[in-house]
């Protein structure tokens, strides 16, 4: 089994409620919310008030991906705002273990996000404290980028690393996934698949979610 997590970054924000309903109708169970601060990444998106509003509107699992500096200042607040899952970047947090514990103590699932050029070795000590890893297959900051092909090998190595340690940590892949490569990422070990432009880019999010789930299910 895998879960598709549509990223609202590529949605029409003036019709966010409709867009959420559309992906739910297609079979999505998780909503990926990209939080960017203009420092860790060269883009600014949305924050706590929007997560609060989405929480009031939907029962979908809310997966917040924090692309922000000093995430330990905000991580637990996202759980309080209604997020079910909160990931922070290993590159942004010198107190990662503390932040992961704070997310869990607040009642959320804690995730470690990792950039394409960051080695998997940086995950080793944090893994036992994480419920999932967000393996970035593009450099974070923008939707619609091309999948970095070396991510497949990295994904396989991460899968091995988690399995060898006998950990329940899930793998989420984020960036550049479409109906052509989704089967490959699932075959390589991803359990949660984020898709932004592939879901919202064509104007038919319900159909796009169905197509992606079908394309990915081939390997399950
Ligand atoms: C990139 C974000 C991704 C993005 C994915 O910084 O973290 O979640 O929305 O979008 P696509 O699927 O278009 O690459
Ligand atoms: Zn993301």
Describe this structure in words.
With 220 residues, this protein is an alpha/beta fold. The chain has helices at residues 16-26, 48-57, 75-80, 96-105, 151-164, 182-187, 197-200, 205-217; strands at 3-6, 30-36, 61-67, 85-89, 109-114, 132-136, 170-174, 192-195. Strand 4 (85-89), helix 4 (96-105) and strand 5 form a beta-alpha-beta unit. The chain is globular and about 40 Å long. The termini are close together. Bound molecules: D-xylitol-5-phosphate and zinc ion. Zinc ion is lined by residues 7, 32, 34, 65, 174, 194.
Topology diagram in text:
Elements: E1 3-6, H1 16-26, E2 30-36, H2 48-57, E3 61-67, H3 75-80, E4 85-89, H4 96-105, E5 109-114, E6 132-136, H5 151-164, E7 170-174, H6 182-187, E8 192-195, H7 197-200, H8 205-217
Parallel strand pairs: 1-8, 2-3, 3-4, 4-5, 5-6, 6-7, 7-8
Helix pairs in contact: 1-8
This protein binds D-xylitol-5-phosphate and zinc ion.
State the main characteristics.
34% helix, 220 residues, single chain, eight-stranded parallel sheet, binds zinc ion, binds D-xylitol-5-phosphate, globular, alpha/beta
Ranges where pLDDT stays below 50 over 5 or more residues in a row are none
Biggest beta sheet summary: 8 strands, parallel
Terminal CA distance: 6 Å
Shape designation: globular
* Count of discrete alpha- or pi-helical segments spanning 4 or more residues: 8
What percentage of residues falls in helices of 4 or more residues?
Answer: 25-40%
Q: Could you tell me the number of beta strands?
A: 8
Strands of the widest sheet, in order across it, are: 1-8-7-6-5-4-3-2
Hetero groups: D-xylitol-5-phosphate, zinc ion
Q: What is the radius of gyration? A: 16 Å
- The helix/strand class is alpha/beta
Oligomer: single chain
Residue share in β-strands = 15-25%
* Average pLDDT figure: 98
SSE succession: EHEHEHEHEEHEHEHH
